[in-house]
Here is the input.
Amino acid sequence: MGAYEIDEWALVKTSLDPEGIGSEESLFTVASGGLGLRGDHEEGDPSFHRGTYLNGFFEQETINYGEIAYGYAENHQTMLNVPDAKLFRLELDGHPFSLKLARIDRYERRLDFRSGELVRMVTFTLASGAVAELETRRLASFARPLVASFRWSLRLTEGCAEVSVFTGIDGGPRNLTAADDPRVGAKFSERPLIPTRLEVAEDGGLVEARTRRSGLAMACAARIRAWRTGVARTEGERGTTMKLGDSFFCVRRASLSAGEELVLEKAVAYRWGLAGDEGRDLAVEAVAAADSASEAGYSALTAEQRRELDSFWRDADLFVDGSAEIRQALRFNLFHVFQAAGRDGRTSLCAKGLTGEGYQGHYFWDTEIYACPIFTYTRPDLARSLLAYRHSILDAARERARVMSQRGALFPWRTIDGRETSAYYPAGTAQYHIDADIAYAVQKYLAASGDGAFAEKEAAEIAVETARLWAGLGRYGEDGLFRIHCVTGPDEYSALVDDNAYTNLMARNNLRWAACLVDSLPQAARESLGSAVGLRDEEIEGWRRAAGAMAVPFDPVTGIHPQDDGFMNRPDWDFAGTPREKYPLLLHFHPLVIYRHRVLKQPDLVLAEFLLSAEFSRAQKIRDFRFYEPRTTGDSSLSHCIQSVMAAEIGDHGKAYDYFLKTVRMDLDDVHGNARDGLHLAAMAGSWISAVYGFAGFRDYDGRFSFDPRLPDDWKGLSFRLAVGGGRLGVELSRDEVRYSFEVDRKETRGSLTLFHRDTEFSLAPGKHRVFSLKRQLRAVLFDLDGVITDTARLHYLAWKAEVDALGLKFDEKLNERLKGVSREASLGIILEANGLEMTASERIAIARRKNERYVASLDVLTERDVLSGVRELLAGLRVHGVSAVLTSASKNAPRILERLGLSKEFELVVDPSSIVKGKPDPELFLRGAELAGAYRLDCVGIEDAQAGIDAIRAAGMAAVGVCGEGGPELIGAHRSVKSLNELTVEHLERLLESIR
Amino acid sequence: MGAYEIDEWALVKTSLDPEGIGSEESLFTVASGGLGLRGDHEEGDPSFHRGTYLNGFFEQETINYGEIAYGYAENHQTMLNVPDAKLFRLELDGHPFSLKLARIDRYERRLDFRSGELVRMVTFTLASGAVAELETRRLASFARPLVASFRWSLRLTEGCAEVSVFTGIDGGPRNLTAADDPRVGAKFSERPLIPTRLEVAEDGGLVEARTRRSGLAMACAARIRAWRTGVARTEGERGTTMKLGDSFFCVRRASLSAGEELVLEKAVAYRWGLAGDEGRDLAVEAVAAADSASEAGYSALTAEQRRELDSFWRDADLFVDGSAEIRQALRFNLFHVFQAAGRDGRTSLCAKGLTGEGYQGHYFWDTEIYACPIFTYTRPDLARSLLAYRHSILDAARERARVMSQRGALFPWRTIDGRETSAYYPAGTAQYHIDADIAYAVQKYLAASGDGAFAEKEAAEIAVETARLWAGLGRYGEDGLFRIHCVTGPDEYSALVDDNAYTNLMARNNLRWAACLVDSLPQAARESLGSAVGLRDEEIEGWRRAAGAMAVPFDPVTGIHPQDDGFMNRPDWDFAGTPREKYPLLLHFHPLVIYRHRVLKQPDLVLAEFLLSAEFSRAQKIRDFRFYEPRTTGDSSLSHCIQSVMAAEIGDHGKAYDYFLKTVRMDLDDVHGNARDGLHLAAMAGSWISAVYGFAGFRDYDGRFSFDPRLPDDWKGLSFRLAVGGGRLGVELSRDEVRYSFEVDRKETRGSLTLFHRDTEFSLAPGKHRVFSLKRQLRAVLFDLDGVITDTARLHYLAWKAEVDALGLKFDEKLNERLKGVSREASLGIILEANGLEMTASERIAIARRKNERYVASLDVLTERDVLSGVRELLAGLRVHGVSAVLTSASKNAPRILERLGLSKEFELVVDPSSIVKGKPDPELFLRGAELAGAYRLDCVGIEDAQAGIDAIRAAGMAAVGVCGEGGPELIGAHRSVKSLNELTVEHLERLLESIR
Here is the structure.
């Protein structure tokens, strides 16, 4: 954990590191969803950037375009750094205290995940030889909106000293100014926040200000109490309060001797709203809130805070058995995600939370796709609040759609107040997918929570307006497919493409869901919706039709889904020629250069396959993951968690864990080098996604809850709870089994919860649990044909030889070796390539047909005597043990051969190779075999004599037995190698499975 | 000609029109390539925007991007409005003279194309009853760089008056500020031109200034002389000279009586260069030039100017016999193009010339593609100078290529000093085609001029660096094609596309030309080039390979070249639903909305087919023109002239003339409503292109000069001269013939000129001429088969009927009618569509094959008796007259049928329908027939019985005879209809041809 101590419930640092202070300030942020205080030192030094933020409080400024065009976003919006209440300056014997200069004996900072406090303890020795202990505490209250509380104390343990402490409100903070990195920096031409009022009293004061252009106003009131302890508890010597520019400071002075302590408590309340709103007096509200907090006192607020957090952790904690470091990192992330979420239905979750100014405090799709799942399943009230924010900006989204010549609503790609503020539309407004992302989050929230009231009003309106957007945006092509042109998907390294697969898939989901939701509404709600949004039945039919005809790019050659229509035509990026320091690419290459290549910032097709899990076969996911992974830079912090989840799903456990480590430690290790600008909230949320969806294999597609657990190798267990079905579903994973339990808070009558463990459906009544074993058990054996059951290889060779000779081409045994396990068409491709020859498709078809005719004719020589030794015995054994025998041959002649061999009845299933997209080494044939046999893939053994077959078995996650024959080449990756099936019994296969992790 | 008088050699206006004053100021500009003076009134009122410009003199300012990224252009560049010498303020009896307030008796302004002067005469009556004649004259000298001369006189014809006149240099002009239209408006945050010196003398003064950021300085000196005439010529009363802010004014006063005249002459000289260039004293240079011009006097400068223009018109005049209006408009355009071209090899031709501030005085591809042809063929010295400018910025283009991760040189899309200044890269830097455009202009210049010195140095370097750009930018796809990804073509309504056809075609030309040029260099030049640019032989091989493999999108369904790879997938723009006021689209729709549709700002594929004329068949050009034209908005002023040329080429003479009128009158009629911001120089040049390439059918592909004249209906003739082969080629077109002559200036030994009239090659020795008739002469008759030669229609019907019945589908005589003249595959498509059925390609192939087998089998019943009446007689007649008989049937069975009919020997040619891309109604079959017969298309008659056939014949430009049979449907568009060929003789056909224009 780098520079931080391992503590399961806190982030702790015991050394002062001025170099890394920027990221530390972000990491040590305390925030309450509405108010965020960066973890800057009270004395102000060392510091990278002191920050205090109010979620949703921003200034705007006209965007200057080099060349403007119709419909461009009009204004920048920037979350403002507001007046700072964190400052406590200390003077000792007339000298300012500085961490950098002082003789420090002990230093510790601790962000406590259960109390929500940032606590610092510093012991230091004065020039006089006196020794002092400084303790500072702060919290941003969850219970009291926009209230922060501070406790500051200085105790002398040796000697004595004259002590002065200054604290108040610093009205001077500014936002960081623009740098070369487009991701950070404010764009103000003038000071954005104009002070309008400054009042002080003996024990505090009030600051008011308004924004220059965005029409907002704010107030901040502080109340300070001070006292001395030691001999006897007394009030501190009364100090003075003074104005200084736009700031004020209260000064408290004391002469302290050993054993004596000077304590200050400060309660601060912020309020903000529309400037000129006659219905509110922000100053009065702020003063009242500060007074109330001050009267309650710091320790009372800590107790309130602890209650909030106890409740949060009860529902949200992810317990990893096996690594305290990981537990700490996961909790750190969850704590920050919890701190960042807006709670008032009018604010959302900034890309950097309230920890810094990166991305200007804007809300993106991050909220819906990365953060909402956590809240939906741990704090549904907060999920609802975040989604209610989207409903609150629906009118702005409708207006944006109108400007963009569309119907319905187009949500802004980035915004604070609901208006588009992306100044680069190819990676901004062009990301129409945000509409579908929001719809998706609403859909998931409704499925988990069953929140009928939200469904009937907010959700239904969002559903209708987003569906309208898609129905109007796309067009039916001449092939009858519904196509969406000129958009940008989540992967911003391709822009303005046609039929971005992610966008189209998510739009399809959006359209279908909207139609279902509207149809499912009670009559009254349906009518009320109809009058609110003017809905016609034909419209809904149109949505269904568009969804049914939605174009999804597919490349038959590779069997993958191209990211967009033109993707496969583009050349690959020259990764080998790109040195490390040229990443992220966006900072070192012109967009044209990036867009022109197959290179990904994040794999959006893979993301779609996670979000819309059940719409894709496992084989498809494996192909796609393997295709996109080497082409993904990971320049986006959003990519790692998705890569982790999908690596886990396809059975690449090493990669799953590596990507998990990147996302779970992203800011702790400052992987992207920019934690100082704020934390990567979506990536932090991603660590929860990675654990729950990745390692526990949770899927919630279309309201169907399923698990397919796969614990990382060095974890003993993983436990968590999910809010579903009106209660809490407990999931406890160990290496060998998984336990599902269902609890409801109150003794009301609750229905049972329907779940799936792998493909097994089961129900859990409230208070009940169910345990499933995770051990492998032999359920099916999948056999290759040629070289395993019989030897037709010679017949193939002779048929090819005759055909190829007739063409006057080269063909020999060595070339023949490369054809093993390969389809007819692919074999011909290999032969032609070896001969440096090209042919038209029709020529190829003719040759393959002739070769097959020769081969099929030669099959008639096969008899029962041609069954290889050991085959009949093994098949008989499988039958006795009730284990399925499945033939997974690439040969289209397999049924005919089995018949000739007299084995037709010995096989429960023969997989038809023409039913699959890609042959070996693609795992599809084996996965299809297991699926047809109803056997879980890990409970299967595959037997093969060719490398392509072994590769396919391994890719399918099955145990692989290689049949090498006498002196045949070694088969790499086989779990066991045999010369013939004589060497195998059912017991051998059972033991083989048990031995594999 | 709207508000202007018709005068063949001048633009004349006799009324004052304060509303239209902006466009008038642009139209009345006088300029010399280096210095431009807008046509603003001397008194300053009424005025839209007074302007004085120095070509290449600009200020820069950092481009503010809403969101910046790597490699974006850094600075705006703006041609500056420099201190104004045009101002003459007049006071009469103490009252300022104003055109708006004065009692005007006569008003005339005249821009004289032969003297280059702007002359104004105003007669007005004073309050006192006195009558005065004001005459002002100005010119921007071609002979004296950056010198302007003014003559101002006031004569009293009645009464008397106290006259004061003020003139000097107004140091205060500013550029127009930014508006909402991205095409105009400067972006200065501070005053860009800082006065550094102001000196006055009794008879003139000097202004110096420097730019704030671009590092340039300028000086402007004026010398004023004044005198009175009338009784006796005397010097005017000595006046005073005064400084006023950054300006100075000389004042001259006189008491004038009837018959007396006050005259002022002012000579002004500008100089500019790098600020701090110790080698130059701009002030001294300017003063010397002004003194020299002043000493020579206004009339001497007029004489110089007239000599320059006489020479220009001798070479460049386009004489249209038939319309004085058109003559005036063409000369007006040529005059302005001549005025606009930079002449020093360091400046080019601004998009608006020096007539206004639109496009900020930037140079675009307009220069090379639209203006250079004029100069290449009329003033090669100016063409060389414009191309030398591109060579002068080659280093900047190399640096730009480096930033864009490319090799070679990438010329800026828009620039003044050579650095990219396009602030919107999707319609800026992404237009890589500018490299090929420049190469193309150089190639054409070399072919026409034979300028060996330029070829060896400047041209060769440009060739190498542009070819390198393309070789590095493209990639070989898996299909072996060389593809260029993520670029924008000239049509800016599609952006960031793959394989833009224009770009790829022009890049291919660029690569081939560069390889040829380098290979053709003399050894010494080749070595010197090699050391200058480090050229390797493999590189040149690479260019040839890339050119040979260049991808050019083609759509087999429509037979057209899609503008780019994805173009055919996009939906058409809703033209019907777009009201007039929503054009130009770019001002009313977001780029995403425009890019998403098939809608063109200008037809770039059609442009490529013009520029690379010989690479496309006529049929291809017809298809493409017809496909793109209805999808083209013409929002770009560059589109009309190209549409005109290509409409002329494909034989649509009405459209050719309509588009010509749009381009020739664009600014005179203020078609785009923005002539006030400057004239559309490329469109003006386009009127020459339209006449020479369009109506005279000139083509100069790859150094081969050819003509295919087609005069507009209301013109009697067209004459012009082209500079080629070291002399002047004269072309004189009348309605019936064309005369080509070749003259050389000096009696040096010149070789003959090789030319093509249509497809006829011929040579012209110096001093010789050659005349060709343009009348139609019968050369070939093209026959359809079914229904014209014999009646197999019944056999087809029966074969289809049997096949379709077997499928259980509907088929009847009515449906059969639609199959006439239609190919087998297309016929099946029609049948399936009528039955609402879809089939796979292989099913279709099988059915079509079976139908054909049935049909072919049934052909055996045909005999010689089945030849329709009149056929043999007509064929015999054709043979006698030496006219080719060609069979142009869509039937693949035609040869077999002819054989059965005993007609095989009667036909000179049978066109193989499988050799063409598109069947009837596409003209390809007929054009191919004419081509094979060696007959010019206008000399052919086609005979058809189906509407699709008649349409095809008409599209081919041939005379069409329709065979209607008894009571058959009327064939629309046939020039003559017959019941059978009995009615036709060769003489009939000859007369038919003669009767058709």
User: Anything to note?
Assistant: The first strand of chain B starts at residue 10 and ends at 13. Residues 452-473 of chain B form the longest helix (22 residues). Chain B has a mean pLDDT of 93.
